[in-house]
Design goal:
GMP Synthetase, Chain A, domain 3; 7-stranded mixed β-sheet; binds 5'-O-[(S)-butoxy(hydroxy)phosphoryl]adenosine
């Protein structure tokens, strides 16, 4: 038997058989350990969420918990609150001013900066005042293009304080991605940096940002964080300013704006099935209620926890579970700038030991990498402070789950495998560590008060253990409210597959005999590469943007480490000849347009692509070839012969 077959056999044996129950000791101390909560929340879901909203501080209470005019929801109608106040000031007022709010760990080993809640209050207020001085008003969208520096968390909270929604563009995205997002949001202000550290080297950011702001008519100011401390960026007149210069003389008080529960808190662009990214809109009251409640219960949060989520704030995971959820709960949250292998492959475990991290949240792709590096790296460190481990971003294979459980959790920490999306804002399908019996590879059950199902094409619930489409059947407080500037796309993408009460997630799943959900991944043309969402359509437009390319199709190929990697199929313009150099150039071209994470793993040249009689490229067949499966029925193709040819190319 090959290794792969062996592994597949082990995994199928593990599925549904191994059950990890919470220990009596864990149960006893857990924030929630009464399974009755599921039934209560099911029967009283509005009250359930109202209780969760009560955990926050409101200037004015709501008139109505939920106004559901499907598919449009308003939560905590007419309630007034401020997110920055809830994440900072109220903890200071409760006597927690000296507690550490953020531990920032730079990539260089000797660089740690800690902010107490009082210090954070000062820094956030100063930057909020600076934004106001630059003319940013309530409702103006501020764009951030930053590495993992404290100013990013501070910036988000400063925006929330003055009611200016933020739009964070992941620092690994390209200048053109930045440009498109600044223009779409009509941002007047961009906050970026000179650069950052990666694997010991300095990475340039300012030049990329400069390229990104060409042709951005709405933009008035660019703020530069001097991360590398070189003070050598050439700033242009009053339009470009250093962060430290504009905050220096600002007062440390800034009255939080009283925001409506339904005011936009932020915009987060994410890839869809077309070339144009979707601007997912999240609002204030429901979002904070959802992320703080899930963070508290799923990670079983205690006052003295040191909580670390290894995501980048450029993605939703960082927004919800590095910044807003933890800080709303008054939890000490860790932010790390660099990579897991600098200066060596034990860096994460060195950070866990150094800061006595108790709750740790990462992605399966990282866990598989640690597994490959070997257990000698975690073994070098004392990880006994860990209490709960989390996983997010893609399905976790049972083998990686067990490795995580044993070698990171020491066989004692429950693993919370959390399924959710940019659009859901908060964890949706997840264990509660003091209640749920865990099955490696399953995200288990919906969070209390939520309702999900798996449907067939006709909208019927599928029988036990049969695959289908994952849907959410009831509104939830941190759900997206719309797509920015594209209200119809909101309805057609998420609420039209079945009916306007049924949220279509785009994932495939099954439900087992114990009502556990097993999510298998995207069913649409969206790839999940190392936990990052990428659109095949965006990559295809990037390919055809190159003069050599006449036609292109991009599909996902399964990958042991990254889950999936993109592969491009290209028909060349008649003036070009296939070559390794050209393939390399095309890969680089896509990387330039989208960013390094969008770079295709391979480019395959072909005279033609499998097409229907009407000329539609059959990506489904290409996907099968990449998986090494048989192409199936090709009789409806205009050019069935091409499939055999492509098959040979793939096996090369
Ligand atoms: C897609 C959402 C949610 C934050 C990170 C990604 C996949 C996410 C899981 C999980 C199986 C998962 C889904 C989903 N996904 N978590 N625990 N098990 N699949 O956010 O970029 O919006 O991607 O990630 O396919 O639809 P995102």
């Amino acid at each position: 038997m090959s290794d792969d077959e062996e592994e597949a056999k082990i995994e199928s044996r593990l599925e549904g058989e191994d059950i990890y129950s919470p220990s009596e000791e864990f149960k006893k101390q857990a924030n929630v350990n009464d399974p009755g909560i599921y039934e209560y929340a099911e029967e009283n879901y509005e009250e359930f969420w109202a209780d969760k909203a009560e955990r926050l501080d409101w200037y004015e209470k709501w008139d109505e918990v939920l106004n559901w005019d499907a598919p449009h929801a308003e939560w905590f109608v007419n309630g007034k609150l401020n997110v920055s106040y809830n994440c900072i000031d109220r903890h200071v007022e409760n006597g927690e001013g000296d507690k550490t709010a953020i531990i920032w760990e730079g990539e260089p080993l000797d660089e740690t900066v800690e902010y107490t809640f009082s210090e954070l209050q000062d820094e956030v207020s100063k930057f909020a005042n600076a934004l106001k001085d630059m003319g940013v008003e309530k409702g103006d969208i501020v764009t951030f293009y930053l590495p993992m520096v404290p100013e990013l968390a501070i910036g988000l909270l400063a925006c929330a304080r003055i009611g200016a929604p933020h739009s964070v563009v992941f620092g690994g995205f390209s200048p053109s991605a930045l440009n498109e997002r600044i223009n779409d949001a009509e941002s007047k202000v961009l906050v970026t940096a000179d650069g950052y550290y990666r694997r010991g080297g300095e990475i340039e950011m300012w030049e990329k940002a400069q390229e990104g702001v060409e042709d951005t008519p709405p933009l008035e100011k660019v703020v530069c964080v001097d991360r590398l401390g070189r003070d050598e960026v050439e700033l242009d007149g009053d339009e470009e300013v250093y962060y430290h210069d504009i905050v220096e003389d600002q007062p440390t008080e800034c009255e939080p704006e009283k925001m409506d529960a339904e005011d936009m808190l932020f915009l987060m662009y994410t890839s869809g099935t077309t070339g144009k990214p979707k601007g997912v809109v999240h609002t204030t009251g429901g979002y904070l209620t959802g992320v703080s409640a899930t963070h508290d219960w799923v990670f079983d949060i205690k006052d003295d926890d040191v909580y670390w989520c290894t995501a980048d704030i450029g993605w939703i995971t960082g927004h919800s579970y590095i910044v807003y959820g933890p800080l709303a709960n008054g939890t000490t949250t860790v932010m790390y700038e660099g990579t897991p292998d600098h200066p060596d492959k034990d860096r994460f475990w060195q950070i866990v030991e150094k800061h006595e991290v108790s709750k740790f949240y990462t992605a399966p792709t990282a866990i598989r990498m640690f597994m490959k590096w070997g257990e000698e790296y975690p073994e070098k460190h004392d990880l006994s402070t860990l209490k709960v481990l989390g996983s997010v971003g893609e399905p976790i294979n049972p083998k990686a789950w067990k490795w995580y459980y044993e070698h990171i959790g020491g066989g004692e920490c429950p693993i919370v495998d959390t399924w959710w999306q940019t659009e859901t804002g908060m964890m949706m399908i997840t264990p509660l560590p003091g209640i749920t019996d865990l099955k490696p590879g399953s995200a288990t059950k919906t969070f209390p008060g939520l309702k999900a199902d798996v449907l067939d094409e006709d909208g019927n619930s599928v029988p036990t253990n049969e695959g289908g489409y994952l849907v959410v059947k009831r509104p939830w407080p941190s759900m997206l409210r719309t797509l920015y500037n594209e209200p119809e796309r909101y309805v057609s993408t998420y609420w039209s597959e079945y009916d306007e009460e049924t949220y279509f997630a785009g994932d495939g799943a099954r439900i087992d005999e114990d009502d556990y959900f097993w999510v298998v991944g995207r069913l649409d043309d969206v790839l999940n590469v190392a936990g990052h969402r990428l659109s095949t359509m965006e990559m295809e437009s990037a390919l055809v943007d190159h003069p050599a390319v006449a036609e292109a199709a991009v599909v996902g190929k399964p990958d042991d480490m990254k889950g999936q990697v993109p592969v491009g199929y290209v028909i060349l313009d008649s003036n070009y000849e296939p070559s390794d150099e050209l393939a390399e150039e095309l890969r680089g071209h896509v990387g330039e347009i989208i960013g390094p994470i969008g770079k295709p793993h391979a480019v395959r040249f072909s005279e033609d692509l499998p097409k229907t009689r009407s000329g539609k490229i059959m990506r489904r067949i290409l996907k099968k070839l990449e998986k090494g499966e048989s192409a199936g029925d090709t009789s409806t193709l205009r050019n069935p012969d091409i499939v055999e040819e492509l098959k040979e190319k793939v096996s090369e």
